[in-house]
Amino acid sequence: MQRVLIILLCCYSFVCAQVHYIKEPTFNQVTFVKTYGNPENEAIVFVHGLGDEGAQLWEESALALEDDYFILMFDLPGFGRSDKANKLYSPKNYAYFINYLAQHFIQKPFHLVGHSMGAAISLKYASMFADIKSLMLIDAAGILNKIAYSQFILKEKTEKMTENEGIIDFVKGLPKALNSILPLDLSPALQNNTSRKLLFRSNPSTIAATALVETDYSNVPQNIDVNTLIMWGEKDKVAPIRTGYVLHKLIPHSKFMSVQNAGHVPIKDAPQLFLKTLQEHLLHDAYTKQLPVYDVIEKERVVEGENGVTLTGRIGHLVIKNSTNIRIQDAKIEDLIIENSSVDIVNSQLLLKNKTEILNSTLTVTATDLETTGIEILNSNIDFAGVIITTPTYLFQNLSTQKAQNVLFSLCTLNENTLHELVSINKGETF
């Protein structure tokens, strides 16, 4: 009877939460770690984002999964119940930190789940280490070019304060303007204890957020070779949903799902859906992407003087003039002219065989294949993210004789060469 009681107590200890305080070597700090379940089971590692809530974000998920999985979660160094100091809290260093804990507690391949900054850290981890079985990225923050990301944040903040379109457009353009007159590369400052103290006041959140946006992810998603689920809240005001489209475009074995009526934290906004989706993901072998099927086929389409129109399907010749908030999604376009309009193109194919013009317009292109013999641009704001570009000649020709034209690229490729920068095309020149 005594022997049976001892065995039962040992089994019970596996499913109860175990709290550990571990001094790890990457930051040389004491870290709060919590485990659930039987270490003999498949393992899941949860990585939280910015904020002192830390690992508490995952408590309900851990309780729901502890019977079937071994759960490892922690407060990242600099957050929650872990030590806080003037350290370089970068995605790369956090990846080394997670690898140390995984070797200590798990010692076998595991499922990796990250939210917000934690998703960006998880993506970095997957590019550095080969010991994960699957990856789940939830509303990953900071993946786009830092100018594109700061434009999004500024726009969201401005729209909360005003409905004046002029002010919104002005604030949206601030990051590009600042980039032309200030050295916005803060990477050197992050490396030094003194500069972190002076510029960031030794604040872990500020250091971690800055190190995140300074990290170049342009060659990371393409090299992820594990089953990857990408989840995004449709109403996310912190991390733009276009980042999810880009990740899905670039990660080979990936699946994307958006969550209606959810913001930046679907774990809380849609807890039952999140848990069900996670459980299904953990059992899934490999995601395969479906080839597009175009139900609507039009030889020619003219959109003029319209607002809020969404176009899909295959369109031979498309002209958009004097229109706002035009969205092209899941489409195949063969000829395109945009004039005095704002257009958003997502998850599409642009096979532009003839003369293409973007004049006095705002054009955002996301997760799209682009084949072109050259696009003529004039006085336009152009933002590409996750665009795979092929051209035998040049990509853009600036028609202006007065000023240079800026084009912003995030995680793009041009004839297989990486593009993750703000490019300035001088007046009358090509790029």
Give an overview of the whole structure:
- GO terms for molecular function: hydrolase activity.
- InterPro entries: AB_hydrolase_1, AB_hydrolase_fold, AB_hydrolase_sf.
- Residues 43-270 form the AB hydrolase-1 domain.
- 30% of the residues lie in helices and 32% in strands.
- It has 431 residues and is of the alpha/beta class.
- The strands form two sheets. The chain has a 16-stranded mixed beta sheet that branches. It has an eight-stranded mixed beta sheet with strand order 1-2-4-3-5-6-7-8, sandwiched between helices.
- Helix 10 links the parallel strand 7 (227-233) and strand 8.
- Helix 3 packs across helix 4 and helix 5 (146-161) runs antiparallel to helix 6.
- The protein is globular and about 65 Å long.
> Structural class of the helices, strands and pairings?
alpha/beta
- How many domains? The number is 2
Mean pLDDT: 89
Major pleated sheet: 16 strands, mixed
Any idea what the radius of gyration is? 24 Å
- Annotation, overall tally of beta strands: 24
Q: Which parts are unreliable, with pLDDT below 50 for 5 consecutive residues or more?
A: 1-14, 161-183
Distance linking N and C termini: 81 Å
Question: DSSP helix count?
Answer: 12
Keywords: Hydrolase, Signal
Organism: Candidatus Marinarcus aquaticus
InterPro entries: AB_hydrolase_1 (IPR000073), AB_hydrolase_fold (IPR029058), AB_hydrolase_sf (IPR050266)
GO cellular component, one term: membrane
